[in-house]
Specification:
The chain is globular, with a radius of gyration of 23 Å. Helix content is 36%, strand content 19%. α3 packs antiparallel against α4, α7 runs antiparallel to α11 and α9 packs parallel to α11. The protein has 20 helices and 22 strands. The strands form five sheets. Strands 13-22-21-14-15-20-16-19 form an eight-stranded mixed β-sheet, sandwiched between helices. β7 and β8 form a beta hairpin. By secondary structure, it is an alpha/beta fold. The protein starts with a strand and ends with a strand.
Amino acid sequence: MFIGLTGYNHESSAALVDEAGLLVDFYKEESLSRIKGDKSFPKRSLDRLISQNNINLEDIVNITFYERPLSAFMTILKTAGKHIPESLSLISHQCRNFNKSSVACFLDIGKLYPGLEKKLVYCDHHLSHTLTSLAYSDIQKNICSIVVDGFGDRSTSSISIVNNHHQITELWSSIYPISLGLFYSAITDFLGFQVNEGEYKVMGLSSYGIEESDEAKKVLNLIKWDKEKNNIKQDMRYFKYHISPEVSFSSRLVELLGTPRNPFKPLLPEDKEFQYYANIAKGAQVAVSNILCEIFQYSFSLTGCNEFLFSGGVAMNSASLDQLASLDFVKKIIVPPSPGDPGAAIGAAYYSFLKNNIKKDIFLPKPSLFPSKYNVNDQKKLAGKIINTKFEIISSDLRESITIAAKLISQGKIIGTILNNSETGPRSLGHRSLICDGTNNEAVKFLNTMIKKRSPFRPTAPCMQKEIAKKYYIIRDELMECYKTMSATCKCKDKSEAINFPTTHIDKTARIQIVENSQFLDRLLNELKRYNIEILANSSLNLSGDPTSFDLIDSFMISSRSPLEYLITDFGLLKSI
């Protein structure tokens, strides 16, 4: 058995790969700790992996950490050292927290499972991302891997050629502190959203922005692609993430763009400053999309490959995917369901699996989108009393529950789902979802603002079957796998009814989900055909600021703290009393 771990810097997680190369279990620490974005050592996740799968420590061949901690630590210090005295606070912070950084992984494993630390190995950060995306690809040889994130070991972006599983060669990299990911995070910070959490809010806000505005143009000039040097060029005078532990942008950015948004004040479309901040978001989004296109173009010139693996935190920028797929040389783009650091635990586990398998003709079996093991019987024991006192069991048969749920949805109701194993990535695909009629304006608004308590400029995702997607949207074959995991936006067809759907962004795009045959949502959509409902609105089962629900108890908490009435569970359809 092979275990992969991430942690300390971004959301922590743990993955388990068996001797056949199959991903058999995966957990994000936030799912178990209930702390949004939990980046502590993944103690709960590792413990659950071992206990749920009845693993003896001697069965574990290696436990792999997703980066090289000392390399990452020293890169930050070396960069900060070039900017003394301005960077003294960052240097002091790094040194004081040395034992709390990823360097402590060896000791933390030993505290939890003495002796297991002797099996610890380290994998290059971007290689972990590459191996994660490779596992989800049906093409595993002669393919180009592009990784773009905030920072990993020493690189912030990289291009590699995957000749085969044992021959992956890095051909280009952008070295810290020049970083497309950290640039976007700094703008996120300026706009009053939480770094490493609010970037998707910037992406949603950008759809309201005007690319020709002065604000957008100013942001665009902060970071560009240098065609002569084939690298990213960033004006670091406007940023401080490389010299400060607390502030990501400098006073120069304030002088350039004006007053940063107050994070404690809600941002509403009717606010007088809304357009100003939307224009800034637009500039950041266009900058990211343009530079990604340049990176893909350069990748093609280096490798000749027209099929791409795309991972790292910036690969979660779903609004850029449609533009990338429109490049004339692109044949296919594969984005794993969890392209950021949590998903890199999967690639880390595969690193050791491949190191211990010298066969040339290995093909990694494609992981399930729902790998996190979930013991239904344990849940029934824990939740039985709550179900009996706080909920009415409308039906204990799943087939009948789907029939009733379809009728409720046709009446404008919102349904929560807590079914079987949970999703790998940050986007709920039906097992941990809030769903309603995707064409019902009132229902979608109620789901978004009353239950989720989200900002009104953030639309939910439309979910549908493939033939329906082609009816309303401009679907690109190059992104078909991305649509299945809600990883890419697409444009509405001209004069399509979808333009007026409440799940459509103001710029006439939508981050769609195409369901696969036999998935729960596919079965529900088949039942909804009798009510002429073709599209569901799908959002994660959580309240704004909380992690997505992992188990029944989590979903009961949401029901108690919101107007959510109905839940489809492994025990049937429940209605709160």
